[in-house]
Write a structure and sequence with these properties.
Elements lengths: L4 H11 L5 E12 L2 H8 L3 E6 L7 H7 L2 E4 L9 H12 L32 E2 L2 E2 L2 H4 L3 H19 L1 H4 L6 H16 L1
Parallel strand pairs: 1-2, 1-3
Antiparallel strand pairs: 4-5
């Protein structure tokens, strides 16, 4: 099933708020959703998301509307509703006040092309696994350095492709050398 262009075009016309509206078409052919794209989208005052179903849209929808086409991954779903929710969630959490703490979104995975560091809560020990001592030390500089090192370690182990895109500082390179030495020492 391919969606006819007329109902979509009429809906866009009725919902469009002029140049303030940023039109997004959820499609497997779109640019892959990344944190940087969510950051781009949050800058728009009015987003209008268009979701397809099964085979998608009559090509004239793309031709006439020239939307920003976004994909949430290299797989196909039966419709664009779930991708729209993913895009909305990624964007809404970047709005001021959405997370309660203005700094929360600044330290998430992918913000600086790295995965997030491990997080812990109470109790201090669960089934023999303890919270790392450094996190209980109260030494903010050691904690900051540990967190950065663990983010680098996790990224190196799970998503080394991200390190190729990351803007690494001298400290990051030093921490990566430490991680490699620790791994070699085994």
């Amino acid at each position: 099933m391919v969606l006819k262009p007329e109902p979509i075009l009429e809906a866009v016309v009725s919902l469009c708020q002029g140049p303030e509206t940023h039109l997004v078409l959820l499609t497997p052919q779109g640019r892959p959703l990344k944190q940087a794209i969510a950051q781009e989208l949050v800058e728009h005052r009015h987003l209008l998301l268009i979701c397809g179903r099964y085979e998608g849209f009559d090509e004239r929808v793309r031709d006439l509307l020239s939307p920003d086409e976004i994909s949430i991954g290299d797989y196909v779903l039966t419709g664009g509703e779930l991708p729209a929710l993913v895009v909305l969630d990624a964007v809404i959490r970047l709005l001021p006040g959405a997370l309660g703490d203005e700094d929360s979104a600044r330290y998430d995975s992918f913000v600086d092309a790295l995965l997030d560091y491990p997080h812990y809560t109470r109790p201090q020990s669960v089934r023999g696994l303890a919270v790392p001592d450094v996190l209980l030390s109260g030494d903010h500089e050691r904690i900051r350095r540990w967190r950065r090192k663990e983010a680098l370690r996790r990224t190196r182990a799970r998503r080394p492709d991200l390190l190729r895109c990351a803007a690494l500082s001298e400290e990051d390179c030093e921490l990566l050398r430490e991680i490699e030495e620790e791994q070699e020492a085994g």
